[in-house]
Amino acid sequence: MFKNCFLPIFILSISFTTFSQDYSEEKIYSWYDKQVGIENSVLFRGIEYVETDRMINEKHKFFQTRDFQNGSVNYDGQIFYNVPLKYNIYDDLLLVNLQLEQRNLIFQLIGERVNLFKINNHTFKYLKAENNTNIRGYYEVINDEGKFKVFKKHLKNKMEVRDRNVAYNEFSTADSDYIFKVENDFFELNNRRDLYSMFPNLKDAIRSFYNANRKQFRDNPDVFMNKLAAEMNNLISTTSTEI
Question: Angle, to 10 degrees, between the axis of helix 221-239 and the axis of helix 203-212?
């Protein structure tokens, strides 16, 4: 039983009796999931997750925390709110904690079926670039407005640690990779030169932007990249640059 089949009719039929007009989509979907049972949803179309790394401290492989956090996910075109999610950065897996009868089950969702997910105001999309086989997996959305979009790839390094009693793994945060999208193609965004080749007519403006925001690029790259996307969209719009 899946909500895509009859949810629009179902919501319409209950909207005048159960919900007031100011109810949000989130509340409606959450109510629906409770009535139907999340065990009947497409979230069970995944692979049961088995942890292969032993971690004994806070140097873990996950986004923000090793605990599950309530978030939202659009999976197979269906939206789920207040779902226990955990993003495994190192293995690039989105995990969901589901209850079936009296059991807790952890599934890894199939990446290509994840349209997006949100955890603590961070939005991620699964990207698969046709023009670059290296760009594939979950990327955080930095700015996806306009023709020029920027995404961030979180990365972690793994180190095996051994002492007299136990062997375990520690994960440290690595420098993130940034990419940009123009039309339907994705490109790496390591430095300004990656933009020069794509936008030769904007070379001077790009150089000026980087020079004016050098400190922010070093201290807060996410904010810098967000501003860069806004600036590039403005330049593309005002100069009618051919892409």
Answer: 150
